[in-house]
Amino acid sequence: MAVADESRRVAESGFVERVRHLADAANPAFAAGCFLVPLAFLAASLGLESTELLFYTHVAAGAVWFGFALIFSALIGPTLGGLDEEASAAVNGVLIPKAVFFLVGFSLTTVLSGTVLLTPEIGLGYGFGGAWSGLALGLGWGLFAFGLAVPHRLQLSAYYETLSADPDVSRLESIEKKNLIVGMFEGAMMLVLVGLMTGFRLG
Fold first, then answer.
1. Measuring CA to CA, how many Å separate 183 from each of 47, 80, 107, 160, 175?
2. Would you call 166 helix, strand, or coil by DSSP?
3. Exposed, middle or buried: residue 90 (CB in 10 Å: 0-12, 13-18, 19+)?
4. Residue 77, CB half-sphere, CA atoms under 13 Å: how many?
5. Which has the closest alpha carbon to 193: 106, 92, 66?
6. What's CA 4's distance to the chain center, in Å?
């Protein structure tokens, strides 16, 4: 009951306190590492002025972001939905805070490194010109913003609901269905972005 009351209080609190709560639930070292590790490679590529390291940082971070986002929506989410309330709450309490920090850290690294690659004024960019590079960059940042606004909010809604004193099963089922639809849309947009970037490399 104390855990449920605390979760309800945090869910209704301010942004900073919610982030602090999620970091504690995820393990603060893990939460920090999700940002520091991938961003360290971005910083190193800029410090060394290495376009090659920057490119591979972008590709690796993007592969982690896209792969995990697709796996989470297509496999992990539906699996959690099939568990009983107690098991679902136990898994959600550990998994979702970690997943949110993990995905935000790698997605942020992906779009930041992609911005540097496609912006010649920064100094290390490949300098792809024209509308296609702008479209790819805009789509990347759009996917990042979409992830913050929709999938992560749905996951956190499920997290707080399963930790409440009396979880609403119908609401959890509704969130699961929305997650599936959102995951399909996100996956399609990711494939479009991969197609654009592959075209750049082959062109």
1. 36, 15, 15, 20, 12
2. coil
3. middle
4. 28
5. 66
6. 26
pLDDT per residue as tens, the chain (203 positions):
445 555 555 656 677 888 888 999 999 999 999 999 999 999 999 999 888 899 899 999 999 998 888 887 777 777 776 777 777 777 878 888 999 999 999 999 999 998 888 876 665 666 555 567 778 888 999 999 999 999 888 888 888 887 777 777 788 778 888 888 888 888 888 888 887 776 665 44
- Identify whether the C-beta of residue 89 lies closer than 8 Å to the C-beta of residue 167: yes
- Look at the block and give the residue holding tokens 């919610």: 18
pTM of whole model > 0.70? yes
* Backbone angle region of 14, left / alpha / beta, with phi > 0 → left and psi within -120 to 50 → alpha: beta
Distance, in Å, from the CA atom of 183 to the CA atom of 77, rounded to the nearest integer, reads 10
